[in-house]
Amino acid sequence: xxxxxxxxxxxxxxxxxxxxxxxxxxxxxxxxxxxxxxxxxxxxxxxxxxxxxxxxxxxxxxxxxxxxxxxxxxxxxxxxxxxxxxxxxxxxxxxxxxxxxxxxxxxxxxxxxxxxxxxxxxxxxxxxxxxxxxxxxxxxxxxxxxxxxxxxxxxxxxxxxxxxxxxxxxxxxxxxxxxxxxxxxxxxxxxxxxxxxxxxxxxxxxxxxxxxxxxxxxxxxxxxxxxxxxxxxxxxxxxxxx
Length: 242
Fold this sequence. Notes:
The chain is an alpha/beta fold. It has one domain (8-240): Rossmann fold. 28% of the residues lie in helices and 22% in strands. It has helices at residues 29-37, 51-58, 90-106, 115-123, 132-135, 164-169, 227-240; strands at residues 8-12, 14-16, 24-26, 41-45, 63-66, 110-113, 128-129, 155-159, 172-176, 183-184, 191-196, 202-207, 212-215. The chain has a 9-stranded mixed sheet, with helices on both faces. A two-stranded antiparallel ribbon has the order 2-3. A two-stranded antiparallel sheet has the order 7-10. A hairpin with a 5-residue loop joins strand 11 and strand 12 (202-207). Helix 3 (90-106) crosses helix 4. The protein is globular. It starts with 7 loop residues before the first strand and ends with a helix.
């Protein structure tokens, strides 16, 4: 694409249930605002299990953002469902796993956030901890909802030096927000762990790829006031300009 034009970044949707109304598809405005600040044109991608239709949408995109949301179905990584596994959506899983694989295989820039880091890992052959509290002894608290503001910073992560993530947010200690009860367990082939929490929960990964990076926290909720958080979206937009 022309380097002066706005890159089109696809953002996948959550299913929103409202009492007495049909389910709706949508996404938090925070993601879209961060992309707009980065100079990108965000578009929402509906859950499409028809691969021909999904491919038509995908080919119009310069980059892809996989946002937060509900849990990935454990069947996708060969496990039985734990009692603490939450809401799942077969349609969203199919849509996002397909998009993630295409983006990795074809070099399309990709940023994953919270659920997005988990989707990327599962798409490439990794597995997940279905509930940190139940399955990881001595883990610290990672799910700080409800009752806490979205920009609450309850713990830090350690960012590995000489990584793409470090080039964007700096190496070493980084305060983050935290609203997840699942995490990466077995890392997929090709993914490199670039940040961990003090309890060793994986907090970021990246790939040898034009731009493929994913984090477990929610930078979109910090990006309006934090240049390091906004920098992740700026980097996605820059990579997507091609």
